[in-house]
Amino acid sequence: IIGHSLPVNLKKHWFDCTIFLSAYAGFRVIQRLEQEMEKSPGSRPFPEITYCNLGNPQALGQRPITFFREVLSLCDNPALLRRDETRMLFSPCAINRARKIIESMPGRNSGAYTNSQGIRSLREAVASGIAARDGFPSRPEDIFLTDGASSAINLSMQILIRSQEDGVLCPLPEYPLYSASIILHGGTMVPYNLSEDGDWGLEIFEVKRCLEEARIAGLTVRAMVIINPGNPTGQVLSVTNQEEIVEFCRKEGLVMLADEVYQDNVYVEDRKFHSFKKVARSLGYDENDISIVSFHSVSMGFSGECGRRGGYMEICGFGDDVMDEIRKVASVTLCPNIGGQILTSLAMDPPKLGDGCFENFMAEKEDIRLSLAKRAKTLASAFSSLEGMTCNRVEGAIYAFPRIHLPAAAIKAAKAEGMSPDLFYACRLLDATGIAVVPGSGFHQATGTWHIRCTILPGEDKIKVMIPRLKEFHESFMNEF
Amino acid sequence: IIGHSLPVNLKKHWFDCTIFLSAYAGFRVIQRLEQEMEKSPGSRPFPEITYCNLGNPQALGQRPITFFREVLSLCDNPALLRRDETRMLFSPCAINRARKIIESMPGRNSGAYTNSQGIRSLREAVASGIAARDGFPSRPEDIFLTDGASSAINLSMQILIRSQEDGVLCPLPEYPLYSASIILHGGTMVPYNLSEDGDWGLEIFEVKRCLEEARIAGLTVRAMVIINPGNPTGQVLSVTNQEEIVEFCRKEGLVMLADEVYQDNVYVEDRKFHSFKKVARSLGYDENDISIVSFHSVSMGFSGECGRRGGYMEICGFGDDVMDEIRKVASVTLCPNIGGQILTSLAMDPPKLGDGCFENFMAEKEDIRLSLAKRAKTLASAFSSLEGMTCNRVEGAIYAFPRIHLPAAAIKAAKAEGMSPDLFYACRLLDATGIAVVPGSGFHQATGTWHIRCTILPGEDKIKVMIPRLKEFHESFMNEF
Question: Per its UniProt record, what Gene3D superfamilies does this chain match (chains A, B) (predicted)?
């Protein structure tokens, strides 16, 4: 039977990433611990697991934005818009917005297939949000609403990659979705290293070196992925650095794939988010000069609506015939889900000053941002304070990525157990404290260095309790080896 | 610039399907007509366009099921579950279900990433619905909740196809999603013809002939797609026919890809829907004997929730290692959207006798089914009554697929305009009556035959008006040629 020993396509060249993506592996070890703790409570020296492994805000207590959920709820059940009692349960602001959205929908009941790019009025809302953010125009024709950023990234790879001879530049430490997607579409990932000593900045000479090596090896490098703010590295690029990157991609004829999903997660005063499109336009380059795809989603930032699978990509500087092909490929999955489309429009076109719910919306948004900023600072300081650990600032995104300078004896002990040293450390940490992190080897860190990725998502109270436990464990670990 | 003349991967082997999928092309001609009619109202001899081209129920007036939308609305805004006023707007039934769903969710606020296969409790609901339908057990571990059936089909092709030497048997006339997906994943479609004279049934000797030809041509045929009820052909297979197919796939070692998305769209007394899994189990075959993937979605049937992108696949008879790989691939897009997951669980585990909202739910469901059945019969009779047109019964699904026996002069006139004869007919029909249908050449009909695909989705009142217009047009067309 084929199904029993299906020589799955992927086995040929599937990545050996044991700690891939939150939703899949990595989970297993933690699941076993969960089950054990459920069976015999009190069997461990900690009351619960602290989940610093998952980039999943709402699973860790982040509250959804009230306005977003009210609008969604009304659009799901448009009958509510005709009932007086609805005013007792929903803000006028949400009622007005929902009414506007429903009126722009095919069939006016929010369940029909939409255009494969997404509903026109919602794309207009996204485009106006982008224009307001950047100060440069954005056109709804260039917006594709998508089921989260991951679908958009997959679609881009599908379009760009023709064969294994096509390469795509990607940062290391990496976000494994990129390697997975490139491999699944039969291409070759061309990694470039971020500079840990330079605040995880991107050094053009290093990218150029990697590009040239790839070309010598016979690859046609077609695009460059830049993640800003960085995942898993948490940096926010400086404008100067961004300008260098734009110049480089323009000169080398590379499509820029700008992963900007953490644009609302910036925590430091001296850095601001600037989209790569804005930087390119500011340099005077228009769509005849450079091709840029920008990815965004409602999964992170203040929305944290991961499970809703909403996002968009803005595609600039592509030919009309290419855009037609992209629309055709998008149509193979018919259309992005309507709930995600609505959420994306709300996130990019939120309540404005003067709207009844503006103040509540801003308060909820700022609460989340300030709390994340505080946790980012607390965690980075805690890691930095440990002997044998260094940690760059968490300027943005939702991760600390501290480096552990492991003693030779620890490395030897890990080897004896057939583990990478950082996995060994992470397992010991989990075992002793219930703190779940992801070892850096899941992200292709620089050879000979060891890291852990720790989200800043657990609540402030949890982080407060977690830090002394982390310190205690780390000291005893370092003493042991 | 790469983006400007991007030699898109797909151009190499992208299908030449001018009338692909509702959401994309075919639209264009109709869009132009819409714009024209908006600019100069009254310029045409018909007041509006009758959309028989799109399989998009809610865009054509099908109402969503109240219970479904109430539950969705509550799950989006769980704060409602804590308010007394909610009882004035929502049924107790929906409130209970929403509460149960929310309690089973990570973070209890319906916005977190879920397991890549979907939330366990919702998969349990789906599995119990399958077991109740079939009378054979179903396991939540075998259920993958997906963003509609199209994502599931794409994922299956990604798993099955290794190279162009891998073939997948698909019915002609085809549903173009299959050819698109197979080509996108680099495989080869191996078509087999359905028998128009045999009520669009599937003749095993024909499938066997195609399989053998493919093997002689050097292909490894790995799977067979069966669409039941049929799209675009509207047949419901007899159990005897289904048994033959199961025996054939088992003997030939083919994975059965059973597209069963129209399982709730059956309109004739003498045919019933039976899942292929049920037929296989009834024959005594278990998962050691045959591999079956069944696709279902909330887009059709009585739900009609196309834009919500909900669906599932049940994968039976695959090895554990293969299942692990499938989970890994599913995790690349992280998780299916939560709204779609919820809807799928509701459709498969609807209110039961004794639940407060059972009667209302059944009434809404039956209303939709009976009205569709009536329209199916009316349209098929109308087509059959026309000179030079023959039409099989519409036993299920949502399409009539009548054959037009075009006069030689019409074929010649079409050629002169560089069109296929059925496109020529469809354009003339649209032009004269505003009735939009899809020509059969979009579905790879048998050579030398001409068809149109006409959905049964416009409301009964619209169909009543449409039929005399159709007759009048057809007669004058036949007279002209």
Answer: 1.10.287.1970, Aspartate Aminotransferase, domain 1 (3.90.1150.10), Type I PLP-dependent aspartate aminotransferase-like (Major domain) (3.40.640.10)
Contact status of B301 with chain A (Cβ, < 8 Å): no
Q: What's the CA gap between A350 and A355, in Å, rounded?
A: 10
Which candidate, B149, B201, B215, B146, places its Cα nearest to that of B177? B149
pLDDT value for A5:
52
Q: Examine residue B47 and say whether the peptide bond preceding it is cis (omega within 30 degrees of 0).
A: no
CB atoms closer than 10 angstroms to residue A120: 14
* Calpha distance B9→A164 (Å, rounded): 12
The beta-carbon neighbor of A1 closest among B5, B9, B291 is: B291
Question: pLDDT (tens digit, 9 = 90+) per residue, B413-460?
Answer: 999 998 889 989 998 999 999 999 989 988 888 889 999 999 999 999
What's the average model confidence in pLDDT over A386-408?
Answer: 95
Examine the pLDDT at A344 and tell me if it is beyond 70: yes
Does position B178 have pLDDT exceeding 70, yes or no? yes
Instruction: Select from B11, B113, B309 the Cβ nearest to the Cβ of A325.
Output: B11
B11 inside 8 A of chain A by CB? yes
List chain B residues with CB under 8 Å of A159.
6, 8-10
Residue in chain B closest to A179 (alpha carbons) equals B332
Task: Give dist(CA A466, CA A437) in Å, integer.
Answer: 12
Decide if A113 and B22 are in contact by the 8 Å CB cutoff: yes
Does the CB of A334 have a partner CB in chain B at under 8 Å?
Answer: yes
| Residue B75 φ then ψ, to 5° | -70, -30
**Strand pairing report for A435-436 and A50-51:** parallel
> Is any Cβ of chain A less than 8 angstroms from the Cβ of B159?
yes
Query: Among B443, B271, B265, which residue's Cα sits nearest to residue B370?
Result: B265
Write down the CATH number for the domain with range B113-348: 3.40.640.10
For domain A2-61+366-480, which CATH number applies: 3.60.140.10, 3.90.1150.10, 2.70.98.90, 2.40.50.100?
3.90.1150.10
pLDDT score, position A442? 82
Mutate to test the interface with B, among A71, A77, A150 (most CBs of B within 10 A): A77
What's the pLDDT score for residue A1?
Answer: 54
CB contact under 8 A, B151 and A79: no
Select from B253, B329, B337 the Cβ nearest to the Cβ of A2: B253
CA–CA distances in Å: residue A460 to residues A153, A378, B24? 33, 9, 48
Question: Would you kindly state where each structural domain of chain A is located, as residue ranges?
Answer: 2-61+366-480, 113-348
Question: Would you call A56 and B109 a contact, using CB atoms and an 8 Å cutoff?
Answer: no
Q: Which residues contact B245 (CB under 8 A, 6 or more apart)?
A: B202, B204, B207, B224, B226, B237, B256, B276
CA dist A359 → A275, A351, A421 (Å): 26, 9, 49
Q: Do domains A2-61+366-480 and A113-348 have the same CATH topology?
A: no
pLDDT for the residue numbered A470: 96
Contacts of A291 in chain B (CB under 8 A): 1-4, 6
**CA of A342 to nearest chain B CA: how many angstroms apart?**
11
CB contact under 8 A, A162 and B54: no
For residue B232, whether the previous peptide bond is cis, meaning omega lies within 30 degrees of 0, is yes
CB atoms B76 and A72 under 8 Å: yes
* Chain B nearest C-alpha distance from A246 (Å): 13
CA triplet B62, B64, B70: central angle to 5 degrees? 165
DSSP states along B21-54: TTTSTTHHHHHHHHHHHHHSTT-SSSSS-EE-S-
Average pLDDT over residues A176-181: 88
Render pLDDT for B128-139 as a digit per residue (tens, 0 to 9): 999 999 999 999
Phi, psi of B39 (to 5 degrees): -65, -50
Residue whose tokens read 């494969």: A116
Model ipTM value? 0.92
